[in-house]
Amino acid sequence: MPIVKYPRATEPLWHEWDGKAQKCGLRHTVYAVNGDRYTGEWLDNLKHGKGTQVWKRTGAIYSGDWKFGKRDGYGSYSIPDPVTKEYKKVYTGWWENDQKCGYGTTFYPGGERYEGEWSSGLRSGWGRMYYQDGSIYEGQWLADQPSGQGMLRLSNENRYEGGWKDGKKHGPGKFFYLDKGQLFEGIWAADIPKCGILIDFGRDEAPAPTQYPIPKV
């Protein structure tokens, strides 16, 4: 009985090439068409796990966690100084869906710094802001503005404690004029005190007290 030999079925070459092109697991640097480059882990052709992304146009670097192609988890974002070309950290903390979310620290130009909670890329929750003029705000935030209860301490140690709304003093609050040894307690609206009482507070220790004490009622 004659033996018939059938040709062995061969996989098309493009199957092999396509398999090698699929990005999954740890990879060396992968370059995008626009020059961006990524080094790290992949899953189903998406950045997933630990990795570092460098954007060619801005030179910015993100190093940290990824989830299905987006920054998600803990990571840091840095940009090069336009003059010295040295990298300066802009944000370090938690991310979700490619935006700052959770606890993190942002470094602003001029030495300003924010430490606290974020939501959808905006300061929201509890946080502390260090301003360029030396003042510090600590308290609640909403949609990138002080809102709720918080304290603002000025560079001369005078401070306000009370309510905030849209970044302005709003509601019941106290302003301690420690340089003069006085305390104003009252109601504020859009940064303006509407009504309240002014009393002496630590006048004997104040560096620049008023000439005459406020008479008690």
TrEMBL record:
Which InterPro entries does the record cross-reference, listed alphabetically?
MORN (IPR003409), MORN3 (IPR052472)
> Which Gene3D superfamilies does the record cross-reference, listed alphabetically?
Histone H3 K4-specific methyltransferase SET7/9 N-terminal domain (2.20.110.10)
| GO CC terms of this entry | acrosomal vesicle
Main subcellular localisation:
cytoplasm
| SUPFAM superfamilies linked | Histone H3 K4-specific methyltransferase SET7/9 N-terminal domain
Compartment(s) of residence: Cytoplasmic vesicle, Secretory vesicle, Acrosome
Keyword Zinc-finger, does the record have it?
Answer: no
Keywords of the record: Cytoplasmic vesicle, Repeat
Q: Name the job this protein performs.
A: Assembles a suppression complex (suppresome) by tethering SIRT1 and MDM2 to regulate composite modifications of p53/TP53. Confers both deacetylation-mediated functional inactivation, by SIRT1, and ubiquitination-dependent degradation, by MDM2, of p53/TP53, promoting a proliferative and cell survival behaviors. May play a role in the regulation of spermatogenesis.
Q: What is this protein called?
A: MORN repeat-containing protein 3
Please tell me the species this chain comes from.
Cochlearius cochlearius (Boat-billed heron)
Q: Which gene encodes it?
A: Morn3
